[in-house]
Amino acid sequence: MLTLDSERLIEILGAEILTGRGELMVNGIATDSRRVEPGNAFVAFSGERVDGHEYLVAAMERGARTLIVTESADALLSQLATARERDVMVVRVADALGAVQALASYHRSRLFCPVVGVTGSTGKTTTKDFIASVVSQGFRVIATEGNQNNELGVPLTILRAGADTDVLVVEMAMRGAGQIAHLASIARPTAGLITNVGTSHIELLGTQKAIADAKGELVSAVASEGCVFLNGDDIFSGALADKASAEIITYGMSDECVIRALDVMTDEASLPSFTLVCPAGTRKVTLAIPGRHNVYNALAATAVALYLEIPLDDIVDGLEAAESGQMRMQSFETASGVHVINDAYNANPTSMRAAIETLSDMSGASKRIAVLGDMAELGSLTELAHFRIGEEVARLEIDALVTVGERARRIADGARAEGMPDEVIRPCQTPEEATEVLDDLLAAGDAVLVKASRVMGLERIVEGIVDPRV
Predict the structure, then answer these.
(1) Which ranges in 87-207 belong to alpha helices (H)?
(2) Whether residues 31 and 165 fall in one domain
(3) What is the pTM of this model?
(4) Which domain holds residue 296?
């Protein structure tokens, strides 16, 4: 956790003191007044829907000793009066985000633990969760929480680390060229991992090669004494390796990979098991997260763990104990006996196929029903990508298909073209309409997958399955 005196904070930020003394101690940063803890500095962001300056008094009431604002003193007369009464210092900066990033960069310079950066088109969050689970078997780990993987979330993750942190795992999202380079300049990773290069964000970057170049900014950011972990089965791994000055360790299914999985199988609930083969030995592993594709994420975590010199038995324990994050391949059974795979957090063609394969592998289900919504940010590939997902649904012999959204109608078209009967395809426009369809369609013993890009809000469908209307 960030700890410094207010005088040093002012120096780092180049801030103007509106009221108070530069002699206070700052212990931690908060950007949400509801999460302020005593001694924190509260940073007031002015967003489209919420203005943090309206919550300055609330932050003080929760114990904030320093307030970082962007508004002028004239606009904050009553809040400044309250701050003087409470002996709270208020400082003004030009840019709230820049202030948090500057503090995170300063704090990173005082950390001596390994910092592992994780990015990729798909699987980066689950891989991060696997790494955290494995590393926590013997070390204190701080890892990205929730969706804090962007230009604000990465600094906030760094600021959570402290002198007692053994390993810091930082997930890095990418929306355009230069973003990962910027995040890496703050996090300064000592190791970097790229799960794969897919077609998500192609609307912004134009080509898959451009996406690979953007992901490769993490590879370039790792110093020569560090290590880079690459999916050896990904077609872009060679090009990414060319960008590295650090050691390269590969993982995957092919014989050339340093960390490998053999004999991959799934059970009736689509939980994968495999034989892990690596320089430290060979072990049998069974994951608690469904889907064959998660074997790759487990191998990636193994590569990082071996680099950190974690014993192989502890690695296996951590892999088998790992759980999926909220709305990411969450697998559970409802009170009515329906098995739900909630993967509604995000979607792109690669992750969509992997999720459908997971549903297809659930051989113990009475019916396997795919609820698939729009995939965003695919640009000129939008029509074709959705159509091909529909073809995949038909080929994998899913029993029923419910689509949600205008783009997802092409999924229905693709399924029909591949021979899926029209009577088991139900195009819907909204999550509410799809919920009504599922009320009639689902029965005890069925398995249902819910997946789409985050903007579709398909978690509402999951809520309807868990608590159906009477």
Answers:
(1) 96-108, 124-135, 153-160, 179-187, 202-205
(2) no
(3) 0.87
(4) 111-321
